[in-house]
Amino acid sequence: MPRYANVPGPTIRRLSLYLRQLEAMWSAGRDTVSSKQLGDALGVTDAQVRKDLAYFGQFGRPGIGYRVPHLIDQARMILGTDQTWRAALVGAGNLGRALIAYRGLARKGFKIVAVLDRDASIIGRPLPDSDGLAVLPVSTLPEVVPAKNIRIGIIAVPAPEAQPVADLMLQAGVQGIVNFAPVALNVPPGVPVSAIDLAIHFEQVAFQVAELAD
Amino acid sequence: MPRYANVPGPTIRRLSLYLRQLEAMWSAGRDTVSSKQLGDALGVTDAQVRKDLAYFGQFGRPGIGYRVPHLIDQARMILGTDQTWRAALVGAGNLGRALIAYRGLARKGFKIVAVLDRDASIIGRPLPDSDGLAVLPVSTLPEVVPAKNIRIGIIAVPAPEAQPVADLMLQAGVQGIVNFAPVALNVPPGVPVSAIDLAIHFEQVAFQVAELAD
Q: Disulfide engineering: A49 pairs with which of A35, B128, B150, B211, CB 3.0-4.6 Å?
């Protein structure tokens, strides 16, 4: 049985936001936080914070609030980032290389242990900031995923290549996908996919700025 | 008056998704689409598609559906991406360079016309894939933003530097911010900010994969 089958998706997403905020507070030397302070920092009400956290247990104490390090540990455990997630990255272009160099992922427990591309001119090349990884041909995915115990696939290829890469990842045994290609992937029901479409975030800001100007 | 003051945020976000899907369909040579087909491609109901689009006008025809190129034009006009948005990027690290090289932004009308950094060792250096841009000192933001007619600021600096960069951007006249730093920005009410926290997308997939394993 899933542990948190009844928890709404938006609550899970906010738990990530709470965790990020708590980590920032802890770095700044803060030991306790109230639901109001946590909510204010993220633009949600204190009632929402309490309701969200209540899905996972009883963490706060009336009049004291939440102990920051305890809540961080709990949130990491709930989200699964208290363990290490081994990931395969397909696409070693600019975005792929940015992901390899991005320390924020490693800090969250995500370790890119294989980088694959279909561009023959870069295969075998060592990647900067990657602990000595070299680019592998994308065709080796079926061997690499089980051999390296990979559970997460990261897609950073152009849109037309994304679906075949996703299919190959899932055949190879990848359990969840983070997709940076600007295209909706077609995967079997229940396969976790998180899509990050950079252009959409820009569009949303453009829309709001255009609204302000009118 | 804002043009679409009564349109819910989720509808605006889905309009971006519809547009992406319509563009893919148009590239594939498709001329018309029903609300059911559009919804199926994105995992929403046809009723939701019709309801969302009805906020902006009457686009479809019963029995025929929507004309793809017309709906693309309309969505771009509504979202504001039929115009060019001049942007300043602060942070010329890996992620910043990935954004410069990412053609998807230019296709959506976003043009990075200035790149700034505080690292003295890279200032003045020309950037690859950037149409000859060179890195400027971040302290020149107050001159660069008005001189280059910049409306959008892109933050791709480490978390502790993000807030001062945002403050400087807004003082310089930037109207909206796309923030890649994993920290919640504190901006005056009404300033459009879109936050892209890569780690959060990874966390959400990890959570779901962990759920499947239990």
A: A35
Q: Around B183, how many Cα atoms within 13 Å sit in the side-chain half-sphere?
A: 20
Of the candidates A20, A21, A81, the beta carbon closest to that of B206 is on: A81
DSSP state of B7: S
Contact A197 B16 (CB under 8 A): yes
ipTM value: 0.84
Contact assignment for B102 to A95 by CB distance below 8 Å: yes
Residue A187 in contact with partner chain B when CB distance is under 8 A? no
A149 touches B at CB < 8 Å: no
Q: How many residues does chain A have?
A: 214
pLDDT tens, residue order, chain A (214 aa): 577 888 888 899 899 989 988 988 888 899 999 999 999 888 889 999 999 999 998 888 877 889 999 999 999 999 988 899 999 999 998 788 888 887 778 888 899 999 999 999 999 988 877 888 999 999 999 999 999 999 999 999 988 899 999 999 999 999 999 999 888 899 999 899 998 888 888 988 988 898 887 6
The verdict on B98 and B74 lying in the same domain is no
Residue B119 dihedral angles phi and psi, to the nearest 5°: -80, 110
* A68 and A161 share one domain: no
Q: What is the pTM of this model?
A: 0.80
- Apex B20 CA angle, B52 and B115, nearest 5: 115
φ, ψ of residue B193 to 5 degrees: the values are: -130, 130
Residue B12: closest C-alpha in chain A? A204
Sign of CA dihedral B204, B207, B213, B214: negative
Q: Is A174 in contact with A167 (CB distance < 8 Å)?
A: no
A76 shares contact with chain B (CB less than 8 Å):
no
User: Treating both helix axes as pointing N-terminal to C-terminal, what angle do B9-27 and A198-213 enclose, rounded to 10 degrees?
Assistant: 120
Residue A212 inside a domain? The answer is no
Q: Does A94 touch chain B (CB under 8 A)?
A: yes
Q: B182 vs A104: CB contact, 8 Å cut-off?
A: yes
- A65 alpha-carbon distance from chain centroid: 28
* A-chain residues near B78 (CB < 8 A): 207
> Is there a single domain that holds both residue A107 and residue A190?
yes
Rounded CA separation B39/B49 (Å) = 6
Amino acid A22 reads L
For the CA atoms of A38, A41, A47, A50, the dihedral, rounded to the nearest 10 degrees, stands at -30
